[in-house]
Inverse folding.
C-alpha cells in the first residue's frame, strides 16, 4: 500500500478507530460472559459471544497488520487490496479474487 501523507493520516485514523472498536467489543464480551442464570438466554448469549469473539479476532488481526506494515496487502497473492475495500471491510485479509477462491 502506498505510504504518502494522505495514506498515513488515513492509516492513523483507522488504527485509532480499530483500537476503539476493540475496546468496545472487549467490554461487550465481558458483559456477555457474565452469567445471568437464565437458561432461556443461553443460546442467544452463546451466539453473541461467538460473534463478538470473531469481531475481536478480525480487529486484532488488522491492528497487527497495521503495526507490522503489512496492512492492505493480500495474504495470498501479496497484491494491494483496494482502499475502497478496506474502507468498507477494514479487517480484509485478501483481495476480492483471493477471497472468492477462499470462499469456494
Amino acid at each position: 500500500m502506498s505510504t504518502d501523507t494522505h495514506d498515513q493520516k488515513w492509516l492513523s485514523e483507522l488504527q485509532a478507530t480499530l483500537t476503539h472498536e476493540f475496546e468496545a467489543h472487549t467490554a461487550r464480551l465481558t458483559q456477555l460472559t457474565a452469567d445471568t442464570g437464565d437458561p432461556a438466554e443461553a443460546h442467544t448469549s452463546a451466539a453473541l459471544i461467538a460473534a463478538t469473539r470473531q469481531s475481536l479476532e478480525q480487529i486484532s488481526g488488522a491492528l497487527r497488520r497495521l503495526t507490522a506494515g503489512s496492512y492492505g496487502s493480500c495474504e495470498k497473492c501479496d497484491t494491494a487490496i483496494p482502499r475502497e475495500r478496506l474502507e468498507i471491510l477494514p479487517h480484509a485479509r485478501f483481495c476480492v479474487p483471493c477471497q472468492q477462491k477462499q470462499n469456494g
About this structure: The chain is about 65% helix and 0% strand. The helical segments are 5-33, 42-68, 83-88, 96-103. The mean pLDDT is 89.
